[in-house]
Protein backbone atom coordinates (compact mmCIF):
# COMPACT_ATOMS: atom_id res chain seq x y z
CA UNK A 1 0.00 0.00 0.00
CA UNK A 2 1.23 3.47 -0.87
CA UNK A 3 -0.22 6.95 -0.25
CA UNK A 4 0.95 9.81 -2.48
CA UNK A 5 -0.24 13.10 -3.96
CA UNK A 6 -2.65 12.83 -6.88
CA UNK A 7 -1.07 13.58 -10.28
CA UNK A 8 -2.83 14.90 -13.43
CA UNK A 9 -2.48 11.48 -15.10
CA UNK A 10 -4.52 10.00 -12.21
CA UNK A 11 -7.49 12.36 -12.63
CA UNK A 12 -9.76 10.15 -14.72
CA UNK A 13 -8.98 6.99 -12.73
CA UNK A 14 -9.68 8.83 -9.47
CA UNK A 15 -12.94 10.34 -10.73
CA UNK A 16 -14.01 6.87 -11.84
CA UNK A 17 -13.09 5.52 -8.39
CA UNK A 18 -15.11 8.31 -6.74
CA UNK A 19 -18.09 7.45 -8.94
CA UNK A 20 -17.79 3.74 -8.05
CA UNK A 21 -17.49 4.50 -4.32
CA UNK A 22 -20.48 6.87 -4.10
CA UNK A 23 -22.80 5.30 -6.68
CA UNK A 24 -26.31 4.77 -5.17
CA UNK A 25 -24.93 5.27 -1.63
CA UNK A 26 -26.55 8.61 -0.68
CA UNK A 27 -28.87 9.03 -3.68
CA UNK A 28 -29.69 7.13 -6.88
CA UNK A 29 -26.44 7.62 -8.88
CA UNK A 30 -24.04 10.23 -7.46
CA UNK A 31 -22.44 13.62 -8.20
CA UNK A 32 -19.23 13.46 -6.13
CA UNK A 33 -16.99 12.60 -9.10
CA UNK A 34 -18.11 15.84 -10.78
CA UNK A 35 -17.53 17.82 -7.59
CA UNK A 36 -13.95 16.54 -7.59
CA UNK A 37 -13.53 17.19 -11.33
CA UNK A 38 -14.56 20.83 -10.86
CA UNK A 39 -12.86 21.43 -7.50
CA UNK A 40 -9.29 20.96 -8.69
CA UNK A 41 -9.46 24.39 -10.38
CA UNK A 42 -11.28 26.04 -7.45
CA UNK A 43 -9.12 28.46 -5.37
CA UNK A 44 -10.38 26.69 -2.21
CA UNK A 45 -8.84 23.38 -3.33
CA UNK A 46 -5.66 22.38 -1.44
CA UNK A 47 -3.33 20.47 -3.83
CA UNK A 48 -0.97 19.56 -0.95
CA UNK A 49 -3.81 17.54 0.62
CA UNK A 50 -5.04 15.73 -2.50
CA UNK A 51 -4.02 12.13 -1.84
CA UNK A 52 -4.47 8.78 -3.53
CA UNK A 53 -3.97 5.38 -1.93
CA UNK A 54 -2.76 2.65 -4.27
CA UNK A 55 -2.24 -1.10 -3.85
CA UNK A 56 -0.45 -3.75 -5.90
CA UNK A 57 -2.67 -5.22 -8.61
CA UNK A 58 -1.76 -8.11 -10.91
CA UNK A 59 -4.63 -7.26 -13.28
CA UNK A 60 -3.47 -3.66 -13.87
CA UNK A 61 -0.87 -2.95 -16.64
CA UNK A 62 0.97 -0.65 -14.19
CA UNK A 63 0.95 -3.28 -11.43
CA UNK A 64 -0.83 -0.73 -9.19
CA UNK A 65 -4.46 0.28 -8.69
CA UNK A 66 -5.72 3.44 -7.03
CA UNK A 67 -8.36 2.30 -4.53
CA UNK A 68 -8.59 5.38 -2.32
CA UNK A 69 -8.70 9.16 -2.62
CA UNK A 70 -9.32 12.21 -0.45
CA UNK A 71 -9.26 15.95 -1.14
CA UNK A 72 -9.42 18.96 1.18
CA UNK A 73 -10.88 22.45 0.79
CA UNK A 74 -10.69 25.78 2.57
CA UNK A 75 -13.93 26.75 4.34
CA UNK A 76 -15.19 29.35 6.83
CA UNK A 77 -16.75 29.68 10.25
CA UNK A 78 -18.70 32.94 10.56
CA UNK A 79 -18.51 34.01 14.19
CA UNK A 80 -21.38 35.55 16.14
CA UNK A 81 -19.73 39.01 15.83
CA UNK A 82 -19.45 38.60 12.02
CA UNK A 83 -15.70 37.90 11.99
CA UNK A 84 -14.56 35.04 9.80
CA UNK A 85 -12.48 32.23 11.29
CA UNK A 86 -10.61 30.13 8.70
CA UNK A 87 -11.74 26.50 8.73
CA UNK A 88 -11.12 23.53 6.46
CA UNK A 89 -13.10 20.57 5.23
CA UNK A 90 -12.50 17.43 3.21
CA UNK A 91 -14.32 15.19 0.78
CA UNK A 92 -15.13 13.44 -1.29
CA UNK A 93 -13.25 10.63 0.43
CA UNK A 94 -13.55 7.35 -1.45
CA UNK A 95 -12.52 3.75 -1.01
CA UNK A 96 -13.30 1.40 -3.88
CA UNK A 97 -16.30 -0.84 -3.00
CA UNK A 98 -14.15 -4.01 -3.29
CA UNK A 99 -11.77 -2.65 -0.60
CA UNK A 100 -14.22 -1.16 1.94
CA UNK A 101 -14.05 -2.08 5.64
CA UNK A 102 -10.44 -3.24 5.50
CA UNK A 103 -9.01 -0.19 7.26
CA UNK A 104 -7.91 1.70 4.11
CA UNK A 105 -10.33 4.62 4.64
CA UNK A 106 -9.09 5.27 8.14
CA UNK A 107 -5.43 4.89 7.12
CA UNK A 108 -5.84 7.39 4.26
CA UNK A 109 -7.79 9.88 6.37
CA UNK A 110 -5.35 9.73 9.29
CA UNK A 111 -2.41 10.25 6.90
CA UNK A 112 -4.12 13.31 5.37
CA UNK A 113 -5.06 14.74 8.78
CA UNK A 114 -1.46 14.37 9.97
CA UNK A 115 -0.29 16.32 6.89
CA UNK A 116 -3.01 18.94 7.51
CA UNK A 117 -1.78 19.32 11.07
CA UNK A 118 1.82 19.77 9.86
CA UNK A 119 0.54 22.54 7.53
CA UNK A 120 -0.92 24.42 10.51
CA UNK A 121 -4.58 23.77 9.77
CA UNK A 122 -6.57 24.64 12.90
CA UNK A 123 -9.92 22.88 12.53
CA UNK A 124 -11.56 20.46 10.13
CA UNK A 125 -15.37 20.41 9.84
CA UNK A 126 -17.40 18.03 7.71
CA UNK A 127 -20.70 16.24 7.17
CA UNK A 128 -20.47 12.48 7.74
CA UNK A 129 -21.22 9.38 9.79
CA UNK A 130 -19.71 9.65 13.28
CA UNK A 131 -19.42 5.83 13.40
CA UNK A 132 -16.55 6.08 10.90
CA UNK A 133 -15.08 9.52 11.63
CA UNK A 134 -14.90 9.08 15.43
CA UNK A 135 -12.00 6.69 14.80
CA UNK A 136 -10.05 9.62 13.29
CA UNK A 137 -10.79 11.97 16.21
CA UNK A 138 -13.98 13.72 15.06
CA UNK A 139 -16.76 14.75 17.44
CA UNK A 140 -20.21 16.23 16.87
CA UNK A 141 -19.39 19.89 16.11
CA UNK A 142 -22.00 21.38 18.43
CA UNK A 143 -19.91 20.11 21.38
CA UNK A 144 -17.20 22.56 20.18
CA UNK A 145 -19.63 25.49 19.79
CA UNK A 146 -19.90 25.29 16.00
CA UNK A 147 -23.30 25.37 14.28
CA UNK A 148 -24.25 24.09 10.84
CA UNK A 149 -25.42 26.64 8.27
CA UNK A 150 -28.40 24.58 7.11
CA UNK A 151 -29.87 23.80 10.55
CA UNK A 152 -31.28 25.87 13.43
CA UNK A 153 -28.60 26.91 15.94
CA UNK A 154 -30.09 24.89 18.79
CA UNK A 155 -30.57 21.73 16.68
CA UNK A 156 -28.68 18.53 17.43
CA UNK A 157 -26.88 17.85 14.13
CA UNK A 158 -25.40 14.37 14.54
CA UNK A 159 -23.93 14.32 11.03
CA UNK A 160 -22.06 17.64 11.37
CA UNK A 161 -18.62 16.82 12.76
CA UNK A 162 -15.43 18.68 13.64
CA UNK A 163 -11.94 18.18 14.98
CA UNK A 164 -9.43 20.74 16.26
CA UNK A 165 -5.99 20.02 14.79
CA UNK A 166 -4.54 22.91 16.80
CA UNK A 167 -5.69 22.30 20.40
CA UNK A 168 -7.72 25.29 21.59
CA UNK A 169 -8.27 26.72 18.06
CA UNK A 170 -11.99 27.01 18.86
CA UNK A 171 -11.60 28.25 22.45
CA UNK A 172 -14.07 31.11 23.10
CA UNK A 173 -15.41 30.74 19.56
CA UNK A 174 -19.07 30.37 18.70
CA UNK A 175 -19.94 30.44 15.04
CA UNK A 176 -21.54 28.85 12.05
CA UNK A 177 -19.76 26.68 9.52
CA UNK A 178 -20.60 27.18 5.86
CA UNK A 179 -20.11 24.38 3.34
CA UNK A 180 -17.99 25.85 0.49
CA UNK A 181 -19.95 26.70 -2.66
CA UNK A 182 -17.79 24.32 -4.70
CA UNK A 183 -19.68 21.35 -3.24
CA UNK A 184 -22.93 22.41 -4.92
CA UNK A 185 -21.55 22.54 -8.46
CA UNK A 186 -23.53 19.58 -9.83
CA UNK A 187 -26.83 21.10 -8.67
CA UNK A 188 -25.94 24.57 -9.96
CA UNK A 189 -24.84 23.34 -13.43
CA UNK A 190 -27.12 20.40 -14.07
CA UNK A 191 -26.55 20.34 -17.84
CA UNK A 192 -22.77 20.46 -17.52
CA UNK A 193 -22.95 17.66 -14.94
CA UNK A 194 -25.12 15.50 -17.20
CA UNK A 195 -22.74 16.01 -20.15
CA UNK A 196 -19.82 15.00 -17.93
CA UNK A 197 -21.67 11.99 -16.50
CA UNK A 198 -22.41 10.82 -20.06
CA UNK A 199 -18.65 10.32 -20.62
CA UNK A 200 -18.66 7.40 -18.14
CA UNK A 201 -19.88 3.85 -18.74
CA UNK A 202 -23.58 3.50 -18.01
CA UNK A 203 -24.53 2.40 -14.52
CA UNK A 204 -27.98 1.71 -13.16
CA UNK A 205 -29.36 4.27 -10.71
CA UNK A 206 -31.22 2.58 -7.88
CA UNK A 207 -33.40 3.77 -5.03
CA UNK A 208 -32.01 2.00 -1.96
CA UNK A 209 -33.06 2.20 1.69
CA UNK A 210 -30.80 4.50 3.68
CA UNK A 211 -30.18 7.02 0.88
CA UNK A 212 -30.61 10.57 2.15
CA UNK A 213 -31.36 12.56 -1.04
C1 LIG B 1 -16.66 5.83 4.15
C2 LIG B 1 -15.40 5.14 3.61
C3 LIG B 1 -14.41 6.18 3.12
C4 LIG B 1 -14.81 4.34 4.79
O1 LIG B 1 -13.63 3.68 4.36
P1 LIG B 1 -13.37 2.15 4.71
O2 LIG B 1 -12.03 1.78 4.24
O3 LIG B 1 -14.53 1.35 4.20
O4 LIG B 1 -13.47 2.17 6.31
P2 LIG B 1 -12.46 1.51 7.36
O5 LIG B 1 -12.29 0.06 7.03
O6 LIG B 1 -11.22 2.33 7.45
O7 LIG B 1 -13.35 1.67 8.68
C5 LIG B 1 -12.80 1.79 9.97
C6 LIG B 1 -13.91 1.70 10.97
O8 LIG B 1 -14.86 2.77 10.77
C7 LIG B 1 -16.20 2.29 11.01
N1 LIG B 1 -16.95 2.36 9.72
C8 LIG B 1 -16.47 2.40 8.45
N2 LIG B 1 -17.48 2.49 7.56
C9 LIG B 1 -18.61 2.51 8.27
C10 LIG B 1 -19.98 2.58 7.92
N3 LIG B 1 -20.39 2.69 6.63
N4 LIG B 1 -20.92 2.57 8.91
C11 LIG B 1 -20.55 2.47 10.22
N5 LIG B 1 -19.24 2.39 10.61
C12 LIG B 1 -18.30 2.41 9.67
C13 LIG B 1 -16.07 0.86 11.49
O9 LIG B 1 -15.96 0.91 12.91
C14 LIG B 1 -14.75 0.44 10.86
O10 LIG B 1 -14.14 -0.61 11.55
P3 LIG B 1 -14.67 -2.14 11.34
O11 LIG B 1 -14.78 -2.37 9.85
O12 LIG B 1 -13.60 -2.96 12.02
O13 LIG B 1 -16.01 -2.23 12.00
C15 LIG B 1 -15.74 4.14 2.47
O14 LIG B 1 -16.60 3.15 2.96
C16 LIG B 1 -16.38 4.77 1.25
O15 LIG B 1 -15.69 5.15 0.31
N6 LIG B 1 -17.73 4.88 1.23
C17 LIG B 1 -18.47 5.42 0.08
C18 LIG B 1 -18.26 6.88 -0.07
C19 LIG B 1 -18.52 7.62 1.21
O16 LIG B 1 -19.53 7.41 1.89
N7 LIG B 1 -17.61 8.56 1.57
C20 LIG B 1 -17.72 9.34 2.78
C21 LIG B 1 -18.72 10.41 2.63
S1 LIG B 1 -18.85 11.39 4.12
Task: Write up this protein.
- There is one protein chain.
- This protein is 24% helix and 27% strand.
- The chain has six helices and nine strands.
- Strands 1, 2, 3, 4, 7 and 9 form a six-stranded mixed β-sheet that branches. The chain has a three-stranded antiparallel β-sheet with strand order 5-8-6, with no helix packed on it.
- The longest helix is centred in the middle third of the chain and has 15 residues, at 104-118.
- It is globular.
Task: Present the secondary structure layout.
Layout: E1 2-5, H1 11-22, H2 32-39, E2 51-56, E3 64-79, E4 84-95, H3 104-118, E5 123-127, H4 130-133, E6 139-140, E7 146-148, E8 160-164, E9 175-178, H5 185-188, H6 190-197
Parallel strand pairs: 7-9
Antiparallel strand pairs: 1-2, 2-3, 3-4, 3-9, 5-8, 6-8
Coenzyme A is lined by residues 21-22, 25, 91, 93-95, 100-106, 128-129, 131-132, 135.
What is the name of the CATH superfamily?
A: Gcn5-related N-acetyltransferase (GNAT)
Helix amount: 10-25%
Low-confidence stretches: none
Q: Report on the biggest sheet.
A: 6 strands, mixed
What's the architecture, going by CATH?
A: 3-Layer(aba) Sandwich
Task: Count structural domains.
Answer: 1
Rounded to an integer in angstroms, the radius of gyration calculated over CA atoms is 17 Å
Keywords:
6-stranded mixed β-sheet; 9 strands; alpha+beta; 3-stranded antiparallel β-sheet; Aminopeptidase; 213 residues; binds coenzyme A; 27% strand; globular
Could you give a short description of this structure?
By secondary structure, the chain is an alpha+beta fold.
Amino acid sequence: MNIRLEQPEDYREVENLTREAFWNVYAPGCVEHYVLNQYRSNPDFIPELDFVLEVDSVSSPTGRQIIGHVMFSKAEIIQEDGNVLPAWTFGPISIHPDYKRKGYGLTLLQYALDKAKEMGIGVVCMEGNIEFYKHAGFVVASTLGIHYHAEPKDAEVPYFLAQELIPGYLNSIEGTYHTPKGYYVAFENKEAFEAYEATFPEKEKKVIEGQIF
